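Entry 14. Structure prediction run on the chain below.
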Amino acid sequence: MSRVRSVFFDAGATLLYPDPPVEVVYGRIFAEDGARFTAAELRDALTTTWIEIQREKPGDRYGGVRGEPAFWRDFLGRVRSLLDGGPLSDTAFAELARHFRDPAVWAVYPDVLPTLEALVERRVPLAVVSNWDSYLPRLLELRDLSRFFRTVTVSAIEETGKPDAEIFRRTCERMRVDPGEALHVGDSLRDDFHGARAAGLQAVLLDRRDEHRDVAERIGSLAQLLPRVSGGI
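Output returned:
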């Protein structure tokens, strides 16, 4: 691995995770909205809807900043319809939107703060590169994480996202590093690992559940990242 002059992090399932899980929240609110379904049916509906929307609009990253409400209403309405054919009520939509805008429901993994603090001490410039809606910069601020990052590149704001090379290229330009000098860390094999490498960056897969034993460049915890980054640029 070449010398690393900057480290980029994914956000979801890398720095933050929803607590309680997304499926639990959707299940509760859809049930309150009158839907009847099993946990397996909900998981299938979420997966199917996400794949369909990305296939229909491959470049549509949450509808862009101005289009986010319409994107989420379409997504949630499709999920609700797959469950039992019923419509999504305005009340349920508003409750889901309110829930996921609450910073208290986003937990920070225990290995995040020690790793970020150690990298900053080594004077390693850090960035976030994430497929998320435009709320992410504010969420990172409210969870006291934004202070670690020189830039936060978000797919909804950029209107391009991982695994496309463009979002990585823009972040490299903002961090003033060549792609080969940047190391990207994230949990998605497709978006983070292969996407970053295809864009010319170094990449490490964060495999918290030990699911990708065939990938050589992987870590089970962010703490394992530190020996790979010397710092002091």
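The mean pLDDT is 94.
Filed with the rest of this week's runs.
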